[in-house]
Each structure stands twice: as C-alpha cells, then as structure tokens.
Fold:
Amino acid sequence: MIDHRVRTLKEKIVAITKYGLLLTFGLTLLLESGDRVVAQEEGHIHVVVNMVQLNVAVTDKNGNYITGLTPKDFAIAEDGLTQKLATFGEGNGPARSLIAAAGELKPEPSAADIVEQAGARSPMLNGQNLDALVAGANVFILFDTSNYMYRGFVFAQDAIADFVRSLETADKIALYSYSRDLSRVATLTPDRAQVLRAVRTTVAGDEAALYNTLLLTLRDAAQYQGRKVVVVFSNGPDNSSVVPPEDVAELAQSSGISVYMISTQQARLEPVSTAVFERMTAATGGKAYFAKNWRDEKKAFASIRDDLAHLYSLAYYPAPNPNRGWRSINVKLVGDALRKYHVRTRNGYRPQPARFAAARTDTADAKPEAQ
Structure:
C-alpha cells in the first residue's frame, strides 16, 4: 500500500515537472517569436510590448522649428513596414495616447489592439502610465574633466551651470564627469541645487576616455523610462578608450537616447574625432556643436535647450517583423506642403530581449550603482 502511494506520488511529480518544462518552453518560444504575452493577475492585465520611442525635430531650410504638426502629418516605416502611431506629443507638453481614440477592434488583434483592450481594464501598462513613458525628459550631462580642460575649466563650469538652470521643464538631471574614469557626481535628480553644487565640485586631470565613459552613461540612462538625452561637453579627442565609437552609437540608437555633443575647437584639430562626433549625434537624432570660445559654448547649450522644447515625441509598437537584427527607421512628413521641411531623428535600432512583465522591476526611481 505504501509502495503504491510512493509510486503514485513520484508519477505526479514527474508529470508536474514535465508540464512545467513544457510551459516554460512554450512561453520562451512566444517571447522569442516576438509575440506579445498577456497575463491576468488579481484583476490587472500586464502586457509585454516593446514600444519604440522617437524624438523628432522638424525644421525649415533656415533651421527654424516647425510647430503645430499633428499625428496625421507623420508617416513612420520600420524596415519598410508602415507603423501605426501609439502616442504623440509636442515640446514639453504631455504625450497623448492615440490607440484608445482610434477605437478599432479586429478579429485578430494586433499588438496595439491588445494594449487598447488591456488599457480599458487597467490604467497601468507594464507598471507605467502610458503618458508617463514619453512625458518630460531625463537629461544626463557628461562633462569632460580631462587634462584637456585646464585652460577653460571655469568657463565650462559656468556654461554647464547656466544650462542646468535653464532646464526648467526637464523631469530630472544627472551630472557625470570623466577623464580616464567615469564619476557620477550627481545621479538623476529633480533637485537643481544639488546638480549645481556638483558642478562646482568637479576638478580637472588625467587623460580622456570619452567612449568608455559615454557607454557607461548610456547604460545608466537606458534604465529609465521616458525621453532620455545625453549632453556631452568635450574639450578634445579621446585618447584612452578601448570601446569603439560605433558600439557606443548603436547602444544609444537601440536605447532611444539622443546624444548631443558640445566640443571646443580643440577637437577640430583631429578630423577623425570631428567625423565621429557628427556621425554619432546624427545617428541618434542629436546635434554636434564646435565652440570657438566660452560664448559659443553657452550658445550651444541654449540651442540644445531650445531643441528639447520643440521636439515631437512619437511612439509606436512595431508591426510583426522577423528581423532580429538591425532595423531601419524612416520618418517622413505627409503632404506636398510639408515635404520641404527637414526631419531629424534616430535612423534605427536593434531590438532588446523581451522579458516577462512579472520579472521586470520598476527602475523609474532607481539609482545606478557607482563604479
């Protein structure tokens, strides 16, 4: 009798183990195939969907910003596949969801339809309000404190301090400095006074490892939701990094982080650095500036602040696409009257690995560990 019960118990354990393995394998296939996973937990629906966020600047031939555009004025294609906008915002105003407004239900729901149905029953998406994903901006300032900075160090500090004061609508600001190593002088915070104090604590010295430290800064920024921008102030070329700039640029593109670079004329002395700065910023939707003096540095910071205030925030859930490698993004304006304007945004990304919603942690208020 006892032996019979033992055999029965063993059979149940084996069956449960097999069932668990099959379930895990099945969910893994779903995630790897790019399908969206919807799980019901205590009346809330959690949806694993990778939203692609774009910061888009629209300017005329003279560089003046074009404002007042609507979602219908934009057409987005990813690898040639037409995409449907999920959210839209302009400048520092809050982004709005376009999915619920569309009110479309299909027999075989797309990713956008799944999110719409989930949103009707739960106001949260992956632990984040949909509007919060693209509202405001988290600005990471990366300050060159290498030995290139000895002559104009105080002027550079003044320019950065003025820039921090001017970012009234940014959600949070972080100040990092670099020479050979990265220093997280002030982690991401809404406290402007804390960042301003941190600016004055920076000191110059050692050689420059821009690409190494920029890669670490991008990794920190990628942990946060919403609009993310990295502003680099550099006084010269990189002479200590082991990370190639191409890898840094790809991480910024895939993470949806716009990179702006302000460099002095010192970088102009090395054409390679100039070309790298221009390519990296263009690929991520940012800009590169080369300042002749401290007045030009302040103008460059003011231009970046102006740019952030006029960007359009566009987001979409990618249509089914078997490509697991690099995906190109093409944003165009619709209509003959708008085609004369110039569109600036990132030109592509590499999909990030999907994870279960239950396994994700909310990093909106997390602080990266110092290294």
Q: What stands out?
A: The longest strand covers residues 52-59. The radius of gyration is 24 Å. The chain has three domains: 2-33, 46-91+96-133+311-351, 138-310.
